[in-house]
Design a protein that fits this description.
Layout (H helix, E strand, L loop, with lengths): L1 E2 L5 E2 L6 H38 L18 H9 L2 H32 L5 H12 L7 H14 L8 H24 L4 H9 L4 H12 L1 H16 L3 H6 L8 H11 L5 H21 L1 H9 L6
Antiparallel strand pairs: 1-2
Helix pairs in contact: 1-12, 2-12, 3-6, 3-9, 3-11, 4-6, 6-9, 7-8, 9-12, 9-13, 11-12
Length: about 300
């Protein structure tokens, strides 16, 4: 108990629970409200899609946030009435192959631009910057005419083929990713290369044994970004893949709802969930590299 200057005992002032809560709400409560609003905004579409996938009626008009009489009928219809496994395999092939090839080719090009000096190096770097300023779909007419001619001479890389579309994906992904990796390669001291070369290492040994382990974060980030963009790509695939069995899952799902949007929405929701699973798996596997890979090296060069 406190005593004032006159010797009178005074009970120390204590705020009531309501007052303490009000002070907390003014200082920190708004942050929690904003966080809850953001979480609700992000979770609501996911819950709606999951609910639509479990809705036995399978139509858009009957979709609710909480389904009544949930079942797996939509999944069963998707697997039995459509070539879902073929579409899914095509999507995974394009995503995995494009990510692996882009990472390898971009790393090779970035190493050359970062460590070697040759005629046309500056022009090449400027060209990469100029190319990435224009979206790929602006050249879709020229690419279509080009592959129409190529398909006549080399049917293996024409329309409705995996390798033809893969070449288009590689051409659009190499520029920006090469520049990103080049900035990361520049952060590795050149003394490491020189020391290895003094010991007799070749450029290939320096690249594979020294550089690649040191730039693993940016390799993981580029692979993740290319994987996500490829598995979700729709425009180029819709131009090149016209046969039903050659389509990716995105094209197949669009085919389900393009003419009967209300009737097949349940199957569409199941396919959308299945399409998100590989992305979640790759993101979870590479999550430890994400922060480091996006911040280191991306602003240098």
């Amino acid at each position: 108990m406190a005593v004032d200057a006159t010797g009178t005992a005074r009970t120390p002032y204590r705020r009531s629970a309501g007052t303490r809560f009000s002070l907390w709400a003014v200082r920190f409560g708004w942050r929690h409200l904003v966080m809850l609003a953001v979480v609700a905004f992000a979770v609501f579409p996911v819950l709606f899609v999951v609910s639509a996938a479990l809705n036995p009626l399978g139509t858009l008009s009957s979709a609710q946030l909480w389904p009544t009489g949930a079942s797996l009928d939509n999944a069963r219809d998707l697997f039995t009435n459509t070539p879902f496994t073929t579409w899914y395999a095509n999507s995974l092939f394009f995503a995995v192959t494009n990510a692996a090839a882009t990472v390898m080719l971009s790393a090779l090009a970035a190493y050359a631009f970062s460590r070697m000096r040759f005629r046309g190096r500056k022009v090449g770097l400027i060209g990469l910057l100029v190319i990435q300023m224009f979206p790929q779909f602006l050249a879709i007419v020229a690419i279509y005419l080009m592959f129409t001619t190529l398909g006549e001479y080399y049917p293996g890389i024409g329309f409705d083929t995996r390798w033809g579309l893969l070449l288009v994906y590689l051409g659009g992904a190499l520029s920006i990713n090469t520049w990103l990796m080049k900035g990361f390669f520049d952060t590795v001291p050149k003394e490491l290369d020189e020391s290895a070369q003094i010991d007799g290492a070749s450029h290939a040994q320096v690249f594979f044994r020294i550089m690649l382990p040191l730039v693993t974060p940016v390799l993981a980030i580029v692979g993740l970004l290319v994987f996500i963009s490829t598995i979700n790509e729709f425009l180029m695939a819709s131009v090149f893949l016209r046969d039903t069995d050659a389509k990716t899952l995105g094209l197949g799902l669009y085919q389900l709802v393009s003419s009967q949007r209300n009737a097949n929405f349940g199957m569409f929701a199941v396919g959308a969930i299945m399409l998100s699973l590989p992305t979640l798996a790759v993101f979870w596997f590479l999550q430890r590299y994400i922060t480091e890979g996006l911040t280191a090296g991306a602003v240098k060069g």
